[in-house]
Write a structure and sequence with these properties.
36% helix; seven-stranded mixed beta sheet; 2 domains; single chain
């Protein structure tokens, strides 16, 4: 395998980024692929929200601006046209299912995806459409990559939706979204991106990649908590999607949210048409702060920092004689580093006894990482630095 030898410099103020995240100072935290950690300021916002329930002393005037702030900040983060293209949901699964059930499917339509490299939640929603006569065109991966050429070749005039992860579940390669997006746009197919493994760490411009929908949760790179997510839907598609679910927040209304305004209604003209029921206000309080922190630094800067650390770890692991997932194209590398043979093992163990011994030593050394599809998986964010890399390599060298 060919390693990427380009090492973007670690940002000089990275230490200042680390200090607001106590979890990163108490352990070697490289588990962003599963869940992120929150800052001290985000924790304080959550505590204030809980206190508001505990003492019943938080008004709408304090709470609602946080929701508006989340929507606006996420729109800025992904370069959406505006907050009207963003719905506040629970997670990626909800966002994907909202889109899957809102399209007017016809017998003979098809969906194009590469299931071997997707998380199950970006597979099952599309599989369920087979009951409506929708064909799933399952594309084989190439060397652990979602291959644009194969995806594009499968698209035709009956393709209604194309979906891809921005960064694959494993082995963690970045997808050439723009190439796939252009092909989907050419036949007026909806291009749906699962961006949960990259959003907040790797830069995403929804116009540049021609995305029609993006689903994320806040619990990974967005440095929030579980139970909150966002769905981006491009304005041109909003009136073409007919939500399968409806509630008070999802309709066009002029009155108080508790009021019934009659049997006739229109869906909200913006992405709030996908918002069902009350909100995860604690998650919103955390994300309002976390998104602000990400925007203050700038995701392009975070990306360079995280990629530099990931490149250094990859080269160090290869130097120890380990099999590391690498790519010839530096544009396809990500902040995730995976070791071993994909599919040789499961979520708990690898198919290589030496890697299992290394995993045990890393766990003993208080390194937070995961095993996915038989591969050791490490991931970097703004709070990581070179000491994390050097300590991991030393533990593995000793093991």
């Amino acid at each position: 395998m060919i390693g990427c030898m380009t090492h973007p410099p670690v940002h000089p103020i990275a230490l200042a980024w680390r200090s607001p995240y106590p979890a990163a100072e108490r352990q070697i935290y490289l588990n962003i692929g599963s869940r992120g950690i929150i800052s001290t300021a985000a924790k304080a916002a959550a505590e204030r929200m809980i206190e508001g329930h505990w003492l019943a002393n938080m008004s709408k005037a304090e709470r609602v601006p946080m929701k508006q702030g989340c929507r606006e900040k996420f729109a800025r983060l992904i370069r959406a046209a505006g907050p009207e293209e963003v719905a506040i949901l629970k997670n990626v699964s909800e966002g994907i299912n909202h889109v899957a059930t809102a399209i007017d499917w016809r017998d003979g339509d098809n969906v194009v995806l590469t299931p071997e490299l997707e998380h199950g939640n970006n597979i099952y929603a599309w599989m369920a459409l087979r009951a409506k006569g929708v064909e799933l065109r399952e594309i084989d991966h190439v060397g652990g990559h979602i291959d644009p050429a194969r995806m594009i070749a499968a698209i035709d005039d009956r393709t209604r939706l194309v979906t891809a992860a921005s960064v694959t579940f494993t082995p963690g390669f970045r997808t050439d979204l723009a190439a796939i997006g252009r092909a989907a746009r050419a036949v007026d197919a909806f291009f749906m991106i699962d961006a949960v493994q990259s959003c907040g760490i790797l830069d995403l411009n929804v116009d540049e990649v021609m995305a029609d929908g993006v689903a994320v949760s806040t619990s990974k790179g967005l440095l929030g908590v579980m139970g909150l997510g966002f769905l981006y839907v491009r304005t041109d598609w909003l009136d073409r999607l007919h939500p399968a679910f409806v509630a008070r927040h999802s309709i066009h209304s002029t009155g108080h949210e508790s009021e019934y305004e009659g049997a006739d209604f229109d869906y909200a003209p913006d992405a709030t048409r996908f918002e069902i029921g009350n909100y995860n206000w604690t998650g919103i309080a955390v994300s309002d702060v976390a998104l602000g922190e990400l925007l203050d630094i700038g995701v392009p800067i975070i990306e360079r920092h995280a990629l530099g650390l990931a490149d250094t770890l990859r080269d160090g692991l290869q130097g120890l004689g380990l099999t590391v997932a690498t790519t010839k194209d530096p544009d396809r590398r990500s902040h995730l580093v995976t070791v071993g043979e994909m599919g040789a093992g499961d979520t708990y163990t690898t198919g290589d006894e030496r890697l299992n011994q290394i995993a045990a030593a890393l766990t003993e050394g208080d390194v937070k990482f995961t095993i996915r599809r038989g591969m050791l998986r490490f991931g970097f964010h703004l709070y990581n630095d070179m000491t994390d890399v050097s300590q991991v390599l030393e533990i593995i060298r000793s093991a």
